[in-house]
Amino acid sequence: MRFDILTIFPEFFDGPFRYGVLSRAANAGLVEIGMHDLRAFTHDRHKTVDDRPFGGGEGMVLKAEPIFAAVESLGVAAKAERDPRRETVILLSAQGRRFTQSVAHELAQLERVVLLCGRYEGVDERVNDLLADRELSIGDYVLSGGELGAAVIVDAVTRLLPGVLGNADSARFESFGRADAALDSLDEVPRSMHGSGGLLDYPHYTRPAEFRGVPVPEVLAGGDHAAIRKWRRERALEKTFRNRPDLLAEADLTRHDRDFLERLGR
Ligand code: SAM
Hints:
By secondary structure, the protein is of the alpha/beta class. The protein has two domains: 2-158, 3-Layer(aba) Sandwich (Alpha/beta knot), CATH 3.40.1280; 176-264, tRNA(m1g37)methyltransferase, domain 2 (Trp Operon Repressor, Chain A, Orthogonal Bundle). It has nine helices and nine strands. It has helices at residues 20-27, 64-73, 101-107, 125-130, 147-158, 169-172, 218-221, 225-243, 255-264, and strands at 2-7, 32-37, 50-51, 61-62, 87-98, 112-116, 134-137, 210-211, 214-215. The strands form three sheets. A five-stranded parallel beta sheet has the order 2-1-6-5-7, with helices on both faces. Helix 8 packs across helix 9 (255-264). It is elongated, with a radius of gyration of 23 Å. The two termini are 42 Å apart. The structure holds S-adenosylmethionine. The site of S-adenosylmethionine has 20 residues, from strand 5.
């Protein structure tokens, strides 16, 4: 899979992709990440990428021409001819649809993702109309530029690519995961050892068994795997109920889960 990031600050990405999972994935050839400086696609002495907004108002706007020239130099198909199962062009924008784990899964199926990073007051809207397939936002807040958003998308998508995580189950059995093995039947306690099914992850512990007076929950050291599964599932339900109750509406819940949530006061 290949990512191409278009930005006026290509050096911004020197850091985020040099560590851990992303750097290993790139070194193993599982993902390619190209950075492209929009100023290289300007034709004036000052390498101008921005201009004043029509209609007046605050700040400057990122011009359309360098962005079109940069995308066209990559050999990406024109918007009308693009095969959406193969490649996509995304504009990072606070006005976009929310980037979620399910969008990450969708993007992980593609061969190529082009990410356009805005700056200033934003990007000339013709980029959105004529070049980008969609606008994505990484959350309900305004950032100074699209670079952090692009790095977030590259990270979240890359870890879903086959072979990137040592243990393929890690990406299935974690927060927002939709592992099909989660439920045996709607009456049973889930068989698998995780939150999953659209819930947040359960709490994790490692040694020492007691830290600053707080012991690891007894059940985790007891070796009773059914009891551990039940404890983990209930903690995942509890955490989701407390921190993200909105996720429960879409989660795969067993009858046991529903009873447990009712006892919590849902
Ligand atoms: N005037 C814009 C607005 O009110 O929506 C904000 C522009 S922001 C200062 C500059 C650039 O940062 C945007 O063009 C976009 O690329 C990026 N950006 C800001 N917030 C973002 C978010 N939540 N998700 C993704 N990109 C964001």
